[in-house]
Design a protein that fits this description.
mainly alpha; single chain; AGR_C_984p-like; 16 helices
Protein backbone atom coordinates (compact mmCIF):
# COMPACT_ATOMS: atom_id res chain seq x y z
CA UNK A 1 0.00 0.00 0.00
CA UNK A 2 1.34 3.44 -0.96
CA UNK A 3 1.62 5.72 2.12
CA UNK A 4 -0.49 8.87 1.71
CA UNK A 5 0.22 10.60 5.03
CA UNK A 6 0.99 14.31 4.68
CA UNK A 7 -0.24 14.51 1.07
CA UNK A 8 -3.13 16.61 -0.12
CA UNK A 9 -6.04 14.49 -1.31
CA UNK A 10 -5.60 15.61 -4.93
CA UNK A 11 -1.94 14.62 -4.94
CA UNK A 12 -2.77 11.39 -3.13
CA UNK A 13 -5.48 10.61 -5.69
CA UNK A 14 -3.02 11.16 -8.55
CA UNK A 15 -0.57 8.78 -6.87
CA UNK A 16 -3.24 6.16 -6.23
CA UNK A 17 -4.43 6.33 -9.86
CA UNK A 18 -0.88 5.88 -11.13
CA UNK A 19 -0.22 2.85 -8.93
CA UNK A 20 -3.63 1.18 -8.74
CA UNK A 21 -2.86 -1.77 -11.03
CA UNK A 22 0.32 -2.55 -9.14
CA UNK A 23 -1.36 -2.22 -5.75
CA UNK A 24 -4.21 -4.51 -6.77
CA UNK A 25 -1.72 -7.08 -8.04
CA UNK A 26 -0.02 -7.02 -4.65
CA UNK A 27 -3.39 -7.45 -2.92
CA UNK A 28 -4.15 -10.53 -5.05
CA UNK A 29 -0.79 -12.06 -4.24
CA UNK A 30 -0.72 -11.70 -0.46
CA UNK A 31 -0.77 -15.14 1.15
CA UNK A 32 -4.16 -14.72 2.82
CA UNK A 33 -5.93 -13.18 -0.19
CA UNK A 34 -4.41 -15.63 -2.66
CA UNK A 35 -5.65 -18.52 -0.52
CA UNK A 36 -9.16 -17.01 -0.29
CA UNK A 37 -9.31 -16.36 -4.04
CA UNK A 38 -8.16 -19.88 -4.89
CA UNK A 39 -10.68 -21.41 -2.48
CA UNK A 40 -13.47 -19.34 -4.04
CA UNK A 41 -12.53 -20.43 -7.57
CA UNK A 42 -12.22 -24.07 -6.57
CA UNK A 43 -15.44 -24.46 -4.57
CA UNK A 44 -17.99 -21.84 -5.60
CA UNK A 45 -19.23 -23.87 -8.61
CA UNK A 46 -20.47 -26.56 -6.21
CA UNK A 47 -22.64 -24.08 -4.28
CA UNK A 48 -26.27 -24.35 -5.34
CA UNK A 49 -28.09 -23.03 -2.26
CA UNK A 50 -27.86 -20.19 0.20
CA UNK A 51 -27.38 -22.65 3.05
CA UNK A 52 -24.37 -24.21 1.32
CA UNK A 53 -22.77 -20.79 0.90
CA UNK A 54 -23.28 -19.81 4.52
CA UNK A 55 -22.09 -23.16 5.85
CA UNK A 56 -18.76 -22.80 4.01
CA UNK A 57 -17.17 -20.17 6.24
CA UNK A 58 -14.31 -19.39 3.84
CA UNK A 59 -16.59 -18.81 0.83
CA UNK A 60 -19.14 -16.94 2.91
CA UNK A 61 -16.45 -14.61 4.32
CA UNK A 62 -15.05 -14.02 0.82
CA UNK A 63 -18.47 -13.01 -0.54
CA UNK A 64 -19.23 -10.74 2.42
CA UNK A 65 -15.90 -8.96 2.00
CA UNK A 66 -16.52 -8.58 -1.73
CA UNK A 67 -19.66 -6.57 -0.95
CA UNK A 68 -18.01 -4.61 1.88
CA UNK A 69 -20.20 -6.38 4.45
CA UNK A 70 -17.40 -7.72 6.61
CA UNK A 71 -18.95 -6.08 9.67
CA UNK A 72 -22.09 -8.18 9.08
CA UNK A 73 -20.35 -11.57 8.83
CA UNK A 74 -21.72 -12.80 12.15
CA UNK A 75 -25.30 -12.04 11.13
CA UNK A 76 -25.70 -15.31 9.27
CA UNK A 77 -29.38 -15.70 10.12
CA UNK A 78 -30.18 -12.26 8.69
CA UNK A 79 -28.08 -12.81 5.56
CA UNK A 80 -29.66 -16.22 4.96
CA UNK A 81 -33.18 -14.88 5.35
CA UNK A 82 -32.41 -11.91 3.10
CA UNK A 83 -30.95 -14.08 0.31
CA UNK A 84 -33.97 -16.40 0.47
CA UNK A 85 -36.55 -13.61 0.31
CA UNK A 86 -38.51 -12.77 -2.84
CA UNK A 87 -37.42 -9.41 -4.23
CA UNK A 88 -40.71 -9.18 -6.14
CA UNK A 89 -42.61 -8.80 -2.86
CA UNK A 90 -42.58 -5.21 -1.50
CA UNK A 91 -42.34 -6.37 2.11
CA UNK A 92 -39.54 -8.88 1.43
CA UNK A 93 -36.52 -8.53 3.74
CA UNK A 94 -34.22 -7.61 0.87
CA UNK A 95 -36.50 -4.64 0.13
CA UNK A 96 -36.82 -3.59 3.76
CA UNK A 97 -33.10 -3.35 4.45
CA UNK A 98 -32.04 0.24 3.79
CA UNK A 99 -28.36 -0.49 3.12
CA UNK A 100 -28.03 -0.85 -0.69
CA UNK A 101 -25.16 -3.32 -0.32
CA UNK A 102 -27.61 -6.07 0.69
CA UNK A 103 -29.73 -5.62 -2.41
CA UNK A 104 -26.64 -5.52 -4.61
CA UNK A 105 -25.40 -8.80 -3.12
CA UNK A 106 -28.84 -10.40 -3.49
CA UNK A 107 -29.01 -9.50 -7.19
CA UNK A 108 -25.40 -10.41 -7.96
CA UNK A 109 -25.52 -13.83 -6.27
CA UNK A 110 -28.69 -14.75 -8.13
CA UNK A 111 -30.23 -17.44 -5.90
CA UNK A 112 -33.86 -18.40 -6.41
CA UNK A 113 -36.57 -17.03 -4.14
CA UNK A 114 -36.36 -20.12 -1.95
CA UNK A 115 -32.57 -19.88 -1.72
CA UNK A 116 -31.90 -22.71 -4.16
CA UNK A 117 -30.84 -23.02 -7.77
CA UNK A 118 -27.94 -20.79 -8.77
CA UNK A 119 -26.55 -20.88 -12.30
CA UNK A 120 -24.21 -17.92 -11.76
CA UNK A 121 -21.77 -19.85 -9.62
CA UNK A 122 -20.74 -22.17 -12.48
CA UNK A 123 -19.98 -19.30 -14.88
CA UNK A 124 -16.29 -18.44 -15.22
CA UNK A 125 -16.97 -14.78 -16.09
CA UNK A 126 -19.16 -14.39 -13.00
CA UNK A 127 -16.52 -16.00 -10.80
CA UNK A 128 -13.82 -13.63 -12.10
CA UNK A 129 -16.14 -10.65 -11.67
CA UNK A 130 -16.53 -11.61 -8.03
CA UNK A 131 -12.78 -11.95 -7.60
CA UNK A 132 -12.29 -8.50 -9.14
CA UNK A 133 -14.95 -7.11 -6.82
CA UNK A 134 -13.18 -8.63 -3.81
CA UNK A 135 -9.80 -7.15 -4.83
CA UNK A 136 -11.27 -3.73 -5.66
CA UNK A 137 -12.95 -3.61 -2.26
CA UNK A 138 -9.72 -4.41 -0.44
CA UNK A 139 -7.99 -1.68 -2.44
CA UNK A 140 -10.63 0.98 -1.75
CA UNK A 141 -10.80 0.13 1.95
CA UNK A 142 -7.01 0.39 2.24
CA UNK A 143 -7.06 3.89 0.75
CA UNK A 144 -10.02 4.96 2.89
CA UNK A 145 -8.16 3.98 6.05
CA UNK A 146 -5.47 6.51 5.14
CA UNK A 147 -7.64 9.28 3.69
CA UNK A 148 -11.43 9.18 4.02
CA UNK A 149 -11.94 11.90 1.40
CA UNK A 150 -9.93 9.94 -1.16
CA UNK A 151 -11.87 6.79 -0.32
CA UNK A 152 -15.19 8.56 -0.93
CA UNK A 153 -13.93 9.69 -4.35
CA UNK A 154 -13.11 6.09 -5.26
CA UNK A 155 -16.54 4.98 -4.02
CA UNK A 156 -18.25 7.62 -6.15
CA UNK A 157 -16.27 6.66 -9.25
CA UNK A 158 -17.37 3.05 -8.86
CA UNK A 159 -21.03 4.04 -8.47
CA UNK A 160 -21.35 7.03 -10.83
CA UNK A 161 -22.48 5.27 -14.02
CA UNK A 162 -25.11 3.28 -12.08
CA UNK A 163 -26.79 6.39 -10.62
CA UNK A 164 -30.14 7.11 -12.26
CA UNK A 165 -32.06 9.12 -9.66
CA UNK A 166 -31.16 11.35 -6.69
CA UNK A 167 -32.40 8.59 -4.40
CA UNK A 168 -29.61 6.31 -5.67
CA UNK A 169 -27.27 8.87 -4.10
CA UNK A 170 -29.25 9.60 -0.96
CA UNK A 171 -29.44 5.98 0.15
CA UNK A 172 -25.64 6.05 0.61
CA UNK A 173 -24.16 8.46 3.17
CA UNK A 174 -20.79 8.76 1.42
CA UNK A 175 -22.28 9.41 -2.02
CA UNK A 176 -24.61 11.99 -0.48
CA UNK A 177 -21.72 13.83 1.15
CA UNK A 178 -19.81 13.75 -2.13
CA UNK A 179 -22.63 15.33 -4.11
CA UNK A 180 -23.46 17.95 -1.47
CA UNK A 181 -19.91 19.23 -1.31
CA UNK A 182 -19.28 18.94 -5.05
CA UNK A 183 -22.44 20.94 -5.77
CA UNK A 184 -21.90 23.53 -3.04
CA UNK A 185 -24.79 22.31 -0.87
CA UNK A 186 -24.13 22.70 2.89
CA UNK A 187 -23.64 19.48 4.86
CA UNK A 188 -26.48 20.65 7.11
CA UNK A 189 -28.86 19.92 4.22
CA UNK A 190 -28.57 16.25 5.21
CA UNK A 191 -31.16 17.03 7.87
CA UNK A 192 -33.78 18.05 5.31
CA UNK A 193 -36.64 15.85 4.17
CA UNK A 194 -35.32 13.34 1.63
CA UNK A 195 -37.58 14.68 -1.15
CA UNK A 196 -36.19 18.18 -0.62
CA UNK A 197 -32.65 16.86 -0.79
CA UNK A 198 -33.47 15.05 -4.02
CA UNK A 199 -34.92 18.26 -5.45
CA UNK A 200 -31.71 20.12 -4.57
CA UNK A 201 -29.56 17.60 -6.41
CA UNK A 202 -31.86 17.67 -9.44
CA UNK A 203 -31.79 21.47 -9.55
CA UNK A 204 -28.02 21.68 -9.22
CA UNK A 205 -26.91 18.90 -11.56
CA UNK A 206 -28.14 16.80 -14.49
CA UNK A 207 -27.47 13.23 -13.35
CA UNK A 208 -27.18 12.02 -16.96
CA UNK A 209 -23.82 13.81 -17.03
CA UNK A 210 -22.47 11.15 -14.69
CA UNK A 211 -22.06 8.94 -17.74
CA UNK A 212 -19.30 11.33 -18.88
CA UNK A 213 -15.95 10.66 -17.12
CA UNK A 214 -14.94 14.29 -17.64
CA UNK A 215 -17.98 15.49 -15.69
CA UNK A 216 -17.23 13.04 -12.89
CA UNK A 217 -13.67 14.37 -12.70
CA UNK A 218 -14.97 17.93 -12.35
CA UNK A 219 -17.13 16.88 -9.42
CA UNK A 220 -14.17 15.06 -7.89
CA UNK A 221 -11.98 18.18 -7.97
CA UNK A 222 -14.66 20.29 -6.32
CA UNK A 223 -15.38 17.69 -3.64
CA UNK A 224 -11.68 17.26 -2.84
CA UNK A 225 -11.02 21.01 -2.65
CA UNK A 226 -13.93 21.65 -0.29
CA UNK A 227 -13.29 18.56 1.86
CA UNK A 228 -9.60 19.30 2.30
CA UNK A 229 -10.36 22.92 3.17
CA UNK A 230 -12.77 21.72 5.87
CA UNK A 231 -10.41 19.03 7.17
CA UNK A 232 -8.27 21.13 9.50
CA UNK A 233 -6.47 18.12 10.97
CA UNK A 234 -5.32 16.94 7.54
CA UNK A 235 -4.41 20.51 6.57
CA UNK A 236 -2.25 20.77 9.67
CA UNK A 237 -0.37 17.57 8.78
CA UNK A 238 0.07 18.45 5.11
CA UNK A 239 3.75 18.54 4.19
CA UNK A 240 3.48 21.82 2.30
CA UNK A 241 1.75 23.54 5.21
CA UNK A 242 4.38 22.23 7.61
CA UNK A 243 7.11 23.72 5.42
CA UNK A 244 5.27 27.06 5.28
CA UNK A 245 4.80 27.07 9.04
CA UNK A 246 8.48 26.29 9.61
CA UNK A 247 9.59 29.03 7.27
CA UNK A 248 7.37 31.60 8.95
CA UNK A 249 8.41 30.59 12.45
CA UNK A 250 12.06 30.90 11.40
CA UNK A 251 11.47 34.51 10.38
CA UNK A 252 11.25 37.63 12.51
CA UNK A 253 7.48 37.45 13.01
CA UNK A 254 7.47 34.00 14.56
CA UNK A 255 3.78 33.57 13.68
CA UNK A 256 1.72 31.73 11.13
CA UNK A 257 -0.80 33.56 8.96
CA UNK A 258 -3.51 31.39 7.35
CA UNK A 259 -4.13 31.91 3.66
CA UNK A 260 -7.69 32.34 2.36
CA UNK A 261 -8.28 30.11 -0.66
CA UNK A 262 -10.69 30.75 -3.52
CA UNK A 263 -12.31 27.32 -3.89
CA UNK A 264 -13.94 28.18 -7.23
CA UNK A 265 -10.58 29.21 -8.67
CA UNK A 266 -8.93 26.04 -7.42
CA UNK A 267 -11.57 23.74 -8.86
CA UNK A 268 -11.97 25.51 -12.19
CA UNK A 269 -9.22 23.51 -13.89
CA UNK A 270 -7.31 20.30 -13.13
CA UNK A 271 -3.98 20.41 -11.35
CA UNK A 272 -1.16 18.81 -13.34
CA UNK A 273 1.82 17.18 -11.73
CA UNK A 274 5.15 16.51 -13.39
Amino acid sequence: MIPLGGLSTQLGLSLVDATRDRQEELIRNTVQNARSINAFRERIADVETVDQLIEDRELYTFVMKAFDLEDQIFGKALIGKMLKSNIEEPDALVNRLSDPRFREMYQELGFGTDGTGNLNTILFKWQERMVDRFVDRQFINAQTEQNETLGIVLEFRAAATKIETPFDILKNADLSRFMRRALGIPDSAAGLDIDRQAALFTKKFDLEKLQDPAEVRKLERKFVAVSDALDTERLASNAAVQLMRGAVQAGAGGGFTPITLNIEAITASPIRYR
